[in-house]
């Protein structure tokens, strides 16, 4: 583990520990969709808090197929909502969602889980730490339109972290417009804070922006 | 050790995690630390910003604010001097983020934080009144001290004002959260924000030929991890002591007036500095408005 990875883990672990104390809970219920983010968050939390204080919540796709089928709900969304429900049903657990900052900023409304342990790590940071990254199909499409996740992350980081109004100018015109629209779509929910361990310069729900 | 400062003094920074809103718990910690400091021959124990109350006090600010008073802190009576961070309110019931230098439990000097950060993650301007001055003061044995609190150091005019009043020891309390942990490449991991702090304190020490003691806190409040890394800097800019990042720690250094003299001898900055020139230029600038 690099010094940087160790320091990130220490901060995430310390904030998660304090969040458990503040909420009077004994363990984290981490929504686990099998993504690199979920794997990374689980690894950090187990390392920092101990296995007994982390419950990873997975669902068998077969078990929610009827929900998606009967109600006409998108399968991924149905799985997410079932994981969410199961996490809330675990006694003494504080639900946590493993999404990255990129996914949170560009993916519409923030998830309702009170703890977002990787919420101050860009997708590119997750890529470096976990060997992969994920986000909703819309965000993945945005990255492709931008010319890759590196280009997208750099431009959004300039806009948000650097407070540079021209941060998105490196993107092609259409891509910049789509990124602006994606940012706007989630802005209302970002006014209702979650716990995001502060790692960078401007942190969702910790620093005031927008 | 109460007040018996000579040309050499031993300073200790007590880097710890104040409990939010728990003055009784924090005062107990400081009293125990003071007893340890007495046993170790320490003359001055420095604690972080708002060490008595915790940082993110919000609406509890009024409940936690103690009336400004020179009455003794009953449990901090004997032993080494202590610099604590607390909330004081004035006669108009305005609460201030204050640093108090206690000697024999009584207030030898108080500094009210002048620059209250109210941007980004900070909201201090909502809770506190702003101090309106800085004064250097005599602590005995030839030591002249200046107190600053966190953001005050990012306004270099305040350190200059204290140096111009003859300070040879600057004490800076802080509650600085770690920022920029993802900077520095894969081998990085030190908070980028802490490099900036080190530049600031070393620059002040070198420019003015003064000791600088920076006492930062650790612990977690909400999403913030306070970064620790407290340090004591010699008048030539040497880092004499540096506390652990993120964990409770205490660090000591022996301070000597001889070292202040030695650091200033090669230069004439203190001799040549001209407050009148500054006053003239400020008058011109402000008058022009």
Brief account:
The complex is a heterodimer of chains A (210) and B (289). Chain A has helices at residues 3-23, 36-49, 61-71, 75-89, 101-106, 123-130, 137-146, 149-160, 173-187, and strands at 27-31, 54-57, 93-96.
What this model shows, in words?
The complex is a heterodimer of chains A (210) and B (289). Chain A is mostly helical and 210 residues long. Chain A has a domain at 3-133: HUPs (Rossmann fold), CATH 3.40.50.620. Helices cover 53% and strands 6% of the residues of chain A. Chain A has nine helices and three strands. In chain A, strand 1 (27-31), helix 2 (36-49) and strand 2 (54-57) form a beta-alpha-beta unit. Chain A is globular. The N and C termini of chain A lie far apart (35 Å). The mean pLDDT of chain A is 93. With 289 residues, chain B is α/β, with parallel strands linked by helices. In chain B, the strands form three sheets. In chain B, strands 1, 2, 3, 4, 5, 6 and 15 form a seven-stranded mixed beta sheet that branches. Chain B has a six-stranded mixed beta sheet with strand order 7-8-9-10-13-14, covered by helices on one side. Chain B has a two-stranded antiparallel sheet with strand order 11-12. Helix content of chain B is 27%, strand content 28%. The longest helix of chain B is centred in the first third of the chain and has 17 residues, at 23-39. Chain B is globular and about 50 Å long. Classes of the chains: A mainly alpha (210), B alpha/beta (289).
């Amino acid at each position: 583990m690099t010094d940087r990875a160790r320091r990130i883990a220490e901060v995430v672990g310390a904030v998660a520990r304090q969040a458990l104390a503040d909420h009077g809970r004994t363990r984290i219920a981490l929504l686990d969709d099998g993504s690199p983010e979920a794997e990374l968050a689980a690894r950090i939390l187990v390392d920092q808090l101990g296995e007994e204080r982390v419950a990873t919540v997975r669902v068998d796709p077969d078990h929610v197929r009827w929900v998606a089928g009967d109600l006409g709900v998108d399968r991924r969304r149905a799985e997410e909502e079932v994981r969410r429900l199961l996490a809330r049903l675990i006694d003494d657990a504080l639900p946590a969602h493993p999404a990255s900052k990129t996914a949170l900023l560009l993916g519409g409304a923030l998830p309702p889980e009170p703890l977002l342990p990787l919420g101050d790590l860009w997708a590119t940071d997750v890529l470096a730490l976990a060997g992969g990254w994920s986000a909703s199909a819309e965000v993945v499409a945005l990255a492709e339109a931008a010319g890759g996740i590196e280009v997208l992350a750099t431009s959004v980081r300039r806009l948000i972290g650097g407070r540079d109004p021209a941060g998105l100018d490196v993107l092609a015109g259409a891509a910049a417009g789509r990124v602006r629209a994606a940012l706007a779509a989630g802005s209302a929910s970002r006014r209702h804070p979650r716990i995001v361990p502060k790692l960078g310069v401007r942190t969702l729900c910790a620093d005031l922006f927008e | 050790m109460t007040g018996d400062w000579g040309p050499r003094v031993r300073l200790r920074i007590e880097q710890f995690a104040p409990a939010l809103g728990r003055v009784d718990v924090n005062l107990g910690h400081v009293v125990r630390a003071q007893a340890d400091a007495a046993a170790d021959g320490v003359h001055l124990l420095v604690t972080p910003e708002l060490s008595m109350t915790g940082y993110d006090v919000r609406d509890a600010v009024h409940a936690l604010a103690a009336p400004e008073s020179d009455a003794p802190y009953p449990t901090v009576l004997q032993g080494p001097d202590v610099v604590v961070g607390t909330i004081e309110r004035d006669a108009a019931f305005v609460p201030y983020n204050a640093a108090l230098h206690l000697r024999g439990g009584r207030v030898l000097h108080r500094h009210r934080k002048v620059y209250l950060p109210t941007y980004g993650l900070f909201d201090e301007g909502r809770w506190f009144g702003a101090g309106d001055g800085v004064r250097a003061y005599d602590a005995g044995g030839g030591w002249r001290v200046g107190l600053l609190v966190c953001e005050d150091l990012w306004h270099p005019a305040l350190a200059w004002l204290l140096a111009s009043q003859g300070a040879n020891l600057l004490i800076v309390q802080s509650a600085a959260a770690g920022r920029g942990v993802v900077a520095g490449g894969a081998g990085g991991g030190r908070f980028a924000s802490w490099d900036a702090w080190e530049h600031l304190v070393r620059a002040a020490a070198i420019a003015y030929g003064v000791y600088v003691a920076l006492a930062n806190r650790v612990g977690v409040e909400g999403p913030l991890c306070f970064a620790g890394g407290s340090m004591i800097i010699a008048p030539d800019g040497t880092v004499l002591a540096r506390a652990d990042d993120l964990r409770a720690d205490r660090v000591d250094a022996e301070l000597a007036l001889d070292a202040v003299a030695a650091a200033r001898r090669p230069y004439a900055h203190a001799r040549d500095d001209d407050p009148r020139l500054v006053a003239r230029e400020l008058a011109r600038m402000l008058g022009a408005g």
